[in-house]
């Protein structure tokens, strides 16, 4: 694993919209926030543009990301929002400039495409974190976690519900639906020996179960070191109930695996979510009462 340099005061952050459109009049608050933390902001040309539900055509969105990657002065890319669209451009972007000038890719949800691709192909760390669209509504602690991670390279989460055990490995994951959609592609990460972190939004309970069965039957979950479950927000059920909660679905798939399992991690689609470094060296400890702690750092 290698990682971009930690950010220093005065570094430049590039704001881009690789998926859905983001209004130009909403970006000023994020610029002010970035400057408040001591950094400079460049606004990409996808901000304020629109094409159907996206910020621009696939080629223009890819070009905006490429502009940031090619600029050695840019130290981080902050994604404006998710939705859907990153997978449509991932193969159009040339990531080779990151080998000479690695940069932080920052975002979550649909941006899981970038996190997974960078880890799978380059073993490059990135930041799973709130996006520009979240800056105004998220808690102060949530936004602070972004800049804390980018400037220190260390972090932690804890909770009070889990299955006991100890695991150490790279911290990898993100949105379950997006990871599932990458299965079989060169962007799907190798999960052997990793601590997998998962969250999701707006899914049917039966589909959570179906995605886990697909991943399990594909053999990609066999070597997991540990599993951390974040928020599964706005879950849906059918008129005839599925019969299992999200927690019960995960227990069905993982309770007998002999790996530590942690519930209630503060990541996902809610206003108090915390950032974590995707690819960082992490340790997960769950005691006999279910209390757990997850710690990570760049090495």
TrEMBL record:
Q: By its UniProt entry, which InterPro entries does this protein fall under?
A: Carboxypeptidase_A_C_sf, Class_I_gatase-like, LdcA_N, Peptidase_S66_N, Peptidase_S66C, S66_fam
**Keyword list, A-Z:** Carboxypeptidase, Hydrolase, Protease, Serine protease
CDD domains, per the entry: Peptidase_S66
Name all LD-carboxypeptidase N-terminal domain ranges.
13-129
Q: Say if the entry is tagged with keyword Protease.
A: yes
Q: Name one GO biological process term.
A: proteolysis
Query: Where is each LD-carboxypeptidase C-terminal domain found?
Result: 168-283
**Key word Protease present in the record?**
yes
Which GO molecular function entries does the Swiss-Prot or TrEMBL record give? carboxypeptidase activity; serine-type peptidase activity
Active-site feature positions:
109, 199, 269
| Entry's family note | Belongs to the peptidase S66 family.
Query: What is this protein called in UniProt?
Result: Peptidase S66
Species of the source: Thermaurantimonas aggregans
